[in-house]
Structures are given as C-alpha cells and as structure tokens.
User: Fold this.
Amino acid sequence: MPRVTVITAAYNAAEYLAETIESVLAQTYSDFEYIVVDDGSDDATPDIIAEYASRIVSLRQPNAGEGAARNRGFEIATGEYVAIVDADDVWAQEKLECQVLAMESQPDAGLCYTNGSSIRADGSVLEAVLVPPHSRLTCLRAMTGQNPLVTSSVMYRRRFLEARPYRSLPVAADFYVHLKVLWRACEQSVFVDEPLVRYRVVETSVLRQVDAWERGRLTLKAVEAFIDDMRSEKPVPQDLQRRGVAYSRFLWAWYCIDGRTRYRFAIGQLVWAVRDDPRLAWRAGRQVAKLTRNALLGARGS
Assistant:
C-alpha cells in the first residue's frame, strides 16, 4: 500500500497536463500512487493520460466538475496522505519527500503546505514568493483573509477526511476542505517554507471564469457549510462563526465593488458584516469610498 496518494482532476487540460504529470512522476519520493481523473474532456486530455497509462491510475467520468472528479480519486485512494495537484501546476522534484518528512515530524498535523511561486501561462515567473511570512494558521485566520493555502501545495492526513470530501462549490471547494481538516486536527498544520510548487495563472482557470457576485456567494456558502458540517461533530464556537461569516460577507461586497456590479447589494453586505464584526468598520469604509469613486467615474464616462 503506497504511503501517499496524488490526485489530479483534469478537464480540457491538454495544454499543460503532460508537464504536470511529469513533475509528479519525477518525485524523489517514490512510495506513492498517482490518480488522474478525466472529467469528461473533449480535447486531447484523454490521449495525454493514455500515454502514461502504465505509470498512473486513470479514471474517466462525464463532466461533473472538479470537486466530483477529485471525489472519484478519493474513493479509490489508499494512501495515508493525500496530495492534490491541479492539471496546470508543477511540483518541484522534492515536494512529496519534504512534506512526508514534515508530517512525520508532527503526527497531529492535519495538513502540510509549502511555499512556491506563481507563473504565467508560458511558465515565466509572475510572483517569486507565493506565501509571505505569516503567523500560525488557524481557521479564524483562514476565514478572515489570511489564508496561505494554495491547493497544489497541500498534503492532507487522510484520517481527517471523508471518503468523498468535496462539495459542489466551484472556486471554494478547496477552502471548505481546508477548514474542515484544520478544525478536526485542532488547527495543527505544518508549513514547509520552500518553493516546491509553481502555481499557473491562466485565463481559463475556474476562478477567472466565475463572476464577482458568484465568487462571493460561493465563499460564504463554503464557510456556512463548514460550520453546519461541524455542528454535530465538533461545533465551531459562536464568536468564530460570527467572525467567519461576517468576513465572508465583507469579501462578497469587496468582489462586487471591484467587479463594478451590484453596488446596492454590496452596501447591504458591508452593513451586515460590520454589524456582526465591528472590527471590519474601517475596512468597510474604504470599500464604500471605492464604490463611490467607481460610481462617480462611471457617471462621468456615460
């Protein structure tokens, strides 16, 4: 039985998938299985996966979304640890080795995450350091804008996850899973401050295809789903619930204002956020100022 399971969900990922697969197969740590799930692609993705048939476990399903594809991988995963790598990201050769050592050194940690860089579609560096110096990761920090987790950098301890851990929450499913694992592990995690992941920023990513209003709605829904799921297992304290939901509403307003859409709705979310967490008042005021500036510029341009 392999120590680590690696899962990639791929949908129309032909442009970068081979590079992703090669980076996983080149790991210095060898005790792993690699599951690649084709989520109903209609490009050359199935052909690329077929080229590696002898070295990976491949699955194919009708298009159901990234979360559902990852759940298919989890259903057959056998590793004590599970790592996700998106179909356009790239790992350094020593990533799994460093993370297994880190997890072994902290047996109570629910997850391990690393540093890395962001890259453009052509592979050139966009940001040399993806995760700046930060305080200990907690659910409160993650829910209030201080979340350093990049999906392709994370390794989970399997016992903190269900057989099918992902919900149908485009752009927020990973956030939801991160919160659950952190909470179940008493907020114990380990950070490897090494550049072990290259996170590719492309126009076709799910995040960039979701509009501002929907992105905010799904982020709030992820926080609420985390709170609801923990209610009968390990309840989240009321103050943490209130602050997490308040910040999600603030974030929803922020996305709308930046996207220059639904200003009246955004104001309502800011009022709600500040009512539940007065700490957000100053930041909410800045968003109102931005909204006013956007509206004035729009009026002048019409």
